[in-house]
């Protein structure tokens, strides 16, 4: 990609900087950002200093951190070479990934683009989607490689968002014929009473996060058309009984609010040529007191079953506002005291 790393000719233990040379000055300007704000973000989050010297960047710091920061800058430059833009979130993702990683297993490789060191990109109709942490990257890889995958972890870690992105990617690539998105219609600690309207209007408020994810990946008119054609279905968990879902990408969101019987019912809907993803957060169970969560039972029962994978997320994988990660860590610490 036209980047060279230069090290001053001194003893290794004396080296305090790594020089990176970038041949395209226009891309280097984009890499640095307005008023060098992109470089400042890397400096602040990685604990290094970055100096610009013509078409070179000098990364100053201890050896390990310096090499990781240099790898981040190289991956961001590769992203620009591939014609992608740079946002604060993209830089955050590159920093989380930290260093070059080996290639991801690539079933459906025509729908996954690799650029830069170990980066993965899912292609949707509206925008490309990239995992921003190692846990997210492993999750996406497992969803392509296995027929049934679980994503378990706190809010904001991209469990549902990435699952829907993979589903849209497989749908666009012809690997599945339809997308089925479901979640239990369970209220989060409130009793709202009977909602007005027909059945769709009654359940839509519970399904809104799934609509939001779909509309991020597909044009609104296309989503509407595909829903009318039943090639995209969004329905409460209770509507799944008695069905066999073949050649479909199926997502059960908020699975911690499914009972054991509901979970078994849903898992056995899996038909030929289908993929299924179960996402949930064990700390946010809204079931009545004394009712066991089907997610916990499935995790216990299905561990070690061939074709079933489990991916776990922590506060370190939160990709919403940074404060969300600190809130989750504070609650986890309080639970640990109890």
Number of strands: 13
State the order of secondary-structure elements, H for helix, E for strand: EEHHEEHHEEEHEHEHHEEHEHEH
Structural class: alpha/beta
Number of domains: 2
Helical percent range? 25-40%
CATH homologous superfamily name of the largest domain? P-loop containing nucleotide triphosphate hydrolases
- The number of helical elements comes to 11
CATH topology of the largest domain: Rossmann fold
- The end-to-end span amounts to 52 Å
From the alpha-carbon coordinates, what is the Rg to the nearest angstrom? 22 Å
Strand order of the largest sheet: 10-9-11-12-8-13
CATH class designation of the largest domain: Alpha Beta
Q: What is the mean pLDDT?
A: 81
Strand content: 15-25%
- The CATH architecture of the largest domain is 3-Layer(aba) Sandwich
The largest sheet, given as strand count, sense and whether it forms a barrel, is: 6 strands, parallel
């Amino acid at each position: 990609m036209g980047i060279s790393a230069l090290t001053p000719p001194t003893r290794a233990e004396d080296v305090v900087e790594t020089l990176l040379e970038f041949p395209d000055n226009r891309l280097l300007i984009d890499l640095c950002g307005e008023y060098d704000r992109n470089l400042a973000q890397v400096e602040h989050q990685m604990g290094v200093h970055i100096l610009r010297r013509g078409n070179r960047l000098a990364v100053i710091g201890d050896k390990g951190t310096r090499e990781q920061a240099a790898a981040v800058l190289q991956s961001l430059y590769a992203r620009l070479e591939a014609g992608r833009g740079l946002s604060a979130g993209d830089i955050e993702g590159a920093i989380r990934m930290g260093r070059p990683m080996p290639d991801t297993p690539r079933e459906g490789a025509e729908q996954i683009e690799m650029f830069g060191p170990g980066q993965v990109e899912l292609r949707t109709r509206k925008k490309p989607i990239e995992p921003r942490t190692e846990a997210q990257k492993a999750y996406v890889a497992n969803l392509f490689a296995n027929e049934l995958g679980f994503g378990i972890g706190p809010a904001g870690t991209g469990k549902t968002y990435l699952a829907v992105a993979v589903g849209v990617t497989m749908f666009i690539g012809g690997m599945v014929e339809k997308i089925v998105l479901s979640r239990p219609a369970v209220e989060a600690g409130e009793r709202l009473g009977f909602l007005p309207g027909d059945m769709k209007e009654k359940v839509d408020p519970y399904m809104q996060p799934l609509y939001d994810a779909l509309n991020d990946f597909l044009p609104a008119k296309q989503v509407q058309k595909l829903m009318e054609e039943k090639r995209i279905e969004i329905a409460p968990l209770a509507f799944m009984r008695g069905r066999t879902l073949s050649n479909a990408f199926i997502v059960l969101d908020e699975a911690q609010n499914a009972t054991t019987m509901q979970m078994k019912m849903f898992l056995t809907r899996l038909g030929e040529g289908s993929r299924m993803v179960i996402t949930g957060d064990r700390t946010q169970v809204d079931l009545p007191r004394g009712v066991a969560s089907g997610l916990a039972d499935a995790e216990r029962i299905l561990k070690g079953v061939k074709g079933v994978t489990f991916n776990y997320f922590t506060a370190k994988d939160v990709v919403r506002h940074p404060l969300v990660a600190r809130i989750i860590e504070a609650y986890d610490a309080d639970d640990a005291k109890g």
